[in-house]
């Protein structure tokens, strides 16, 4: 019992008093001490672990790796690297322990330096670096490492790259890598993790057709739908307008969490299913599942579709007051859109001005749409100037302002706007139109 307790003195005393028996006795004691060391590190007792490590009469690479990994994981990077430098021998796990710690605490550059110094880079090393870049949003660096790899016969390497693309909004690239891994000269069979990321990419693109093929392919491989895959498909179906199919999948979940509830609430919100969105939110709360920012995107979207300003205001307020969730750019965009379309243009404008972060062009664009809807030339010009500042190369905002001018018979202003667009090399988008009296 003392061996796995948090009392290293008692445990070590027990080990010291154990008489050696047989030729393998020293090895057995080393294994026991390594087990105790690992146990102390898992419990977070770094001090006791270091004491035990320092007092060990014999250490092997497992002992050193455990101590280095424990220090790195706890953020004691200086101590971890110092101990790493003292190691009499190292293996790939030694390097990976330090690299993982550096990445976990945001030191990607230093992690890359150590990665490049490795005598032999294991697949785990490559995957660790690719995943680190993925979490930091540096897709280009991750892709560079992936393409540099000579041996890509490891499924987890492909999964890391597909996940990197999918998580960072590069859906087409994610599907491209997926297609590459299925080519005859590669032929790495995907697993549940692969399909989850690919389905997510399909959702981002709104590509239901390919998503259905992926689902069929999973079936041909004998892969059953676990909760992660079901949730990914729920997201795909809701974004494609197949709410009934999404509900069927949602009902089949073994365990419903905030991710699955939020995916369903967002889907209902996007498709104007207000009562269903509210019902799911209440069901989630009754199950003591705390909503997240995505949950409120769905609920606010539902109120927006229904034009319920007061309810949306209340939702926006208690998101912060009750759940301590800071509104994101997406939450503000939904509120600005609702207020603007409801004719509350000044309130929408003031809400943007009160934002704690720099508003994106998309937020101003939502208000510009409302200015066109309500033919407010004065405010439209102010809002359009904000859009031009942040997205000068986007012709859509010029088209919107042009339509505001056309609706108000401001033909001279419209001509000047068209001249400005021409001078800036901007053209009217296909499918857009405006009226111009010559």
UniProtKB/TrEMBL annotation:
One biological process term from GO is: RNA modification
Is Repeat among this UniProt entry's keywords?
yes
Extent of the PPR repeats: 60-94, 122-152, 154-188, 257-291, 328-362
Alphabetical keyword list: Repeat, Transit peptide
Any GO MF annotation of the entry: RNA binding
Task: Establish whether keyword Transit peptide is in the entry.
Answer: yes
What PANTHER family does the record tag this protein with? PENTACOTRIPEPTIDE-REPEAT REGION OF PRORP DOMAIN-CONTAINING PROTEIN (PTHR47926:SF545), PENTATRICOPEPTIDE REPEAT-CONTAINING PROTEIN (PTHR47926)
Q: What is this protein called?
A: Pentacotripeptide-repeat region of PRORP domain-containing protein
